Amino acid sequence: MRPLIQRLGYLVVDAIDPHAAARDTVNIVGARIVEECPDSVALSSNQRHAELIIRKGTANALVRCGLEATSAAAVEQVRANCEAAGLRILSTEPSLPGIEAAVTFATSEGHVFEVHTPMSADRPARYHGPGAHPRALDHVNFTAVDPRAWADEMQAACGLLLSERTTGYELAWLRAADGRHHTVAVVKSHSPGIHHMSWEFPSFDDFKNLADALIPDARKLTWGPGRHGAGDNLFLYFADSADFLIECVAEMEVIDDEAAPVRISAAGENLSNWRVVNQWGALPPTEWVEHHSPLAALAEDRAA
After folding, report:
1. Would you give the DSSP letter of residue 180?
2. The domain that contains 75 carries what CATH number?
3. Average pLDDT, the chain
4. Where is the VOC domain (predicted)?
5. 144 and 281 share a domain?
6. Same domain, yes or no: 282 and 147
7. Which domain holds residue 152?
8. How would you label 35-71 residue by residue, b for 16+ Cβ within 10 Å and e otherwise?
9. Is the torsion defined by CA of 215, 194, 156, 51 positive or negative?
């Protein structure tokens, strides 16, 4: 079955200081602010209306992930799939302007996804500002207590294709209709949340400016640069002021064959299989392996 998702749509997070997190996204990553209010900031790196929305919250936490559907019919199919899989449907109304149709559901571990028709492309393609200017918010890696069940749910609901996994489902990567090695991925953890969000850049040359942008604030990279085995992409990671782990990538593998077999490899103890995690050899540090940002409470949970 062809995936019902075309690509990543957007991400909403809570931050204790949303404006500080937004400044990091501007000064280091190179996206630009498109809307700013006292309690929220919206950013985009391309013509999409918004890619990252940072809200004022009592904790630094993941709120919702938008996934762009291949069509309005695909949105309706996701709704039907969620009902068949026993996943909780939270809304059938779009949450953001510029979206015509949407369905929002929660996984069994509480991750909230809005599957939506394409967001309006009403922003200028080019803009002034610091940073290397990414192409797009590229993918999100989530944390789950039971990553195998999580991956099964995302396949059942959205038709995502499993590109690769480790033997014990310590890591699993799922792709959308655009064929990029992963649009969402999952890491085994002690509790559900988000592991990292990722921005795509045109070239490895951009990574020098990204790393140099950390120097004025006396900050350092968390891991990288390197080249992942899973996805074959170049990478580097840093933590922003809200302690969200940010990945910057280039050269992500594209899998054109929707029937391509799932690749399975051993993760190694503490992700020590360098062929999977970093073909250049440097293994992830403890702060990367153990990183976790929690889920924000759903509105009905807060009300309760």
Report:
1. B
2. 3.10.180.10
3. 95
4. 136-251
5. yes
6. yes
7. 136-294
8. eeeeebbbbbbbebbbbbbbbebeebbbbbbbbbbbe
9. negative
Give the whole-angstrom CA distance, residue 72 versus residue 48: 18
Q: Collect all residues with Cβ–Cβ distance below 8 Å to 217 and sequence separation of at least 6.
A: none
157 & 111 share domain: no
146 and 106 within one domain? no
Residue 122 lies in a domain: no
pTM score > 0.90 for this model? yes
In DSSP terms, 36 is beta-bridged to 41
| Residues in contact with 304: Cβ distance below 8 Å, sequence separation at least 6, in sequence order | none
Q: What mean pLDDT do residues 44-55 have? A: 97
Instruction: Give the tens place of pLDDT for each residue, 26-39.
Output: 999 999 999 999 99
DSSP labels, 220-279: --SEEEEE-SSS--EEEEEE-TT--EEEEEE---B---TTPPPEEE---TTS--HHHH-T
Q: What angle do CA 113, 117, 123 make, to 5 degrees?
A: 100
Does 249 share its domain with 171? yes
**69 and 202 co-located in one domain:** no
Q: Is 181 found in the same domain as 223?
A: yes
91: helix, strand or coil: strand
262 within a domain of the structure (yes/no): yes
Distance set, CA 62 to CA 81, 196, 233 (Å): 24, 10, 25
Task: Determine the average pLDDT of the residues in 110-114.
Answer: 98
Percent helix, percent strand, percent coil in the chain, to nearest 5: 20, 35, 45
**pLDDT at 300 (0 to 100):** 45
* Strand duo 245-250 + 234-239: pairing: antiparallel
Total tally of structural domains belonging to the chain: 2
pLDDT at 260 over 80: yes
CA dist., res. 233 & res. 210, Å (int): 16
The answer to whether residue 127 sits within a structural domain is no
